[in-house]
Design goal:
Radius of gyration: 21 Å
Shape: elongated
Distance between the termini: 80 Å
Mean pLDDT: 83
Strand order of the largest sheet: 1-2-3
Strand content: 15-25%
Number of strands: 5
Length: 97
């Protein structure tokens, strides 16, 4: 009886491990190639003055976004205000033209 319960318990645990969502279901950045296979391979802007950016992890470029109205600042690796990045965000209303 104990052996049967142990087998059922092991089968339940194993089947539960296979039913989890894989990490590859997250959106990725098309056309972006990560520079390495490291866990923290870097973060890269998808375009100038855009809130979207790619976060490379183990060679996979995952698509992430800053909360509006912030844009991704690749130099500082943070989401930032457009007026702090006038060199990239020339259309930002707070930047002098």
């Amino acid at each position: 009886m104990k052996a049967a319960l142990s087998i059922i318990l092991i089968a339940t645990v194993i089947s539960g491990c296979h039913s989890q969502d894989p990490t590859d279901s997250r959106p990725t950045c098309p056309g972006v190639e990560c520079p390495n296979e490291k866990p923290e391979g870097g973060m890269f802007a998808s375009a100038d003055c855009s809130g979207d950016f790619c976060d490379c992890s183990y060679g996979v470029p995952y698509l992430l976004s800053c909360e509006a109205p912030l844009v991704f600042d690749e130099a500082n690796q943070v989401c930032n205000w457009c007026y702090n990045m006038c060199d990239k965000c020339k259309d930002c209303g707070a930047c002098k033209k």
